[in-house]
Specification:
Blueprint: H1 2-9, E1 12-13, H2 39-60, E2 70-76, E3 79-86, E4 102-103, H3 109-121, H4 131-134, H5 147-151, H6 161-166, H7 174-182, H8 198-212, H9 216-225, E5 234-235, E6 277-279, H10 281-290, H11 299-305, E7 313-314, E8 317-321, E9 327-335, E10 338-345, E11 350-356, H12 362-372
Antiparallel strand pairs: 1-3, 2-3, 2-11, 4-6, 5-6, 7-8, 8-9, 9-10, 10-11
């Protein structure tokens, strides 16, 4: 029945849901203070934009027999050049649009990292602080792990089946989780090697709570989400109020009954800090804009976050060298029901967001879209 609904209700937003609200720019709308171009310029501008949109759509849907289901956003040189929702967000047929909330999985880590940097700015934490300074029960050699090593996945912690299975016990106390995480075996000496591990960010969430004196969710909301203009963002488990703007957990959902809303999932210390933030295209566009200003992080803090590709990973972002010498900072997320990918290139004021609740490799779509963007010497969208 759901597959039939998908075929029947495949939509393209915002067209299908009417024009965007007045405070959202529309790529094809001329600004009032711009001189009206002549016909030749107008034709070339429209062609450039249309060609780029077609290339992006082809990157998202290379196989017409397997249509994309979710939401896409591409900002290029500060301009939204592609924004579209594909398919219904729920069983009632509500179309996906720029306001639909998706669980972004591990993309959440960059917001945890930003909260840690805000605590550093406030003098409540330091990047070279060790776990031993904040957790008296931490054993050696875990006591030597620093906050910066947790942020960069260089703590020596390694993923274990024991903790992965334990994550299902989302109602376990923070103290119990603290003891469990602090005694995880190390795969190597802290600081020696990069090894991606969720436990680093679970520990950072515990540090945020301990150093701020507030719940993790409350501190992240006040120090990161609200200053970034992400009013609609929320965490898994926050199901109070209207949840109709949330997509359903479809991808790999195998439980009896209809799939739940994004917020309706396990939540607790086994997830907090590493995953679990619900975001929309509008919210992530606001996040991208905020990261170009001092709204959340100042210039010295952003320099720590957006490192060169040689560093590989720092503070919630991978750094990769892309085509045409561009440096992209990127992260993807995978969780029960959702996949996501977010990439930004500060040098081009560019952003690529892929949100889906279908069995789609969001990070591969992201890479194809980045590859479809104009070369430095190509005509840019909107330029004659």
């Amino acid at each position: 029945m759901l597959a039939a609904l998908c075929a029947a209700l495949l939509v393209q937003a915002p067209t299908a849901s009417g024009p965007p609200p007045p405070d959202r720019a529309t790529p094809d709308r001329a600004t009032p203070d711009r001189a009206t171009p002549d016909r030749a310029t107008l034709d070339r501008t429209t062609l450039d934009r249309t060609t780029l949109a077609a290339r992006i759509e082809q990157a998202a849907e290379p196989d017409p027999t397997r249509p994309f289901w979710g939401a896409l956003l591409v900002v290029w040189r500060g301009e939204t050049v592609f924004e579209r929702g594909f398919g219904p967000a729920d069983l009632a047929g509500r179309p996906v649009d720029a306001h639909t909330l998706f669980d972004v999985g591990s993309v959440s880590k960059q917001f945890t990292a930003a909260a840690v940097l805000r605590l550093v700015r406030e003098g409540r934490l330091a990047l070279d602080d060790t776990l031993g300074e904040h957790f008296e029960s931490a054993p050696a050699p875990q006591r030597a792990i620093t906050v910066e090593q947790l942020l960069c996945h260089r703590s020596g912690l390694r993923q274990t089946a024991e903790t992965d299975e334990k994550a299902a016990a989302f109602d376990e106390s923070s103290l119990s989780w603290e003891r469990h995480l602090l005694t995880r075996p190390l795969a190597h000496e802290p600081g020696k090697l990069f090894a991606y591990c969720n436990y680093n960010y679970l520990l950072l969430a515990l540090l945020v709570e301990r150093c701020s004196g507030r719940s993790f969710e409350a501190y992240v909301r006040a120090s990161v989400l609200e200053p970034a203009g992400m009013a609609s963002a929320r965490f898994v488990g926050e199901c109070d109020g209207d949840t109709s703007a949330q997509a359903l957990r479809r991808h790999r959902y195998r439980r009896p009954g209809p799939p739940p809303r994004a917020c309706q999932w396990a939540w607790g210390p086994g997830y907090r800090g590493a995953t679990g933030l619900l975001c929309s295209l509008d919210g992530l566009r606001a996040w991208h804009a905020a990261l170009a200003t001092d709204a959340v992080l100042d210039s010295s803090e952003r320099a720590l976050v957006f490192v060169a590709p040689e560093r590989r990973y720092a503070f919630g972002w991978y750094a990769v060298a892309g085509e045409h010498g561009r440096v992209w900072h990127t992260h993807d997320g995978r969780t029960d029901g959702f996949r996501s990918s977010l990439s930004r290139c500060a040098g081009e004021n560019a952003l690529v967001v892929v949100l889906t609740n279908e069995a789609t490799a969001a990070n591969l779509i992201d890479q194809r879209i980045r590859g479809a963007l104009p070369a430095p010497d190509a005509a840019q969208p909107g330029e004659p």
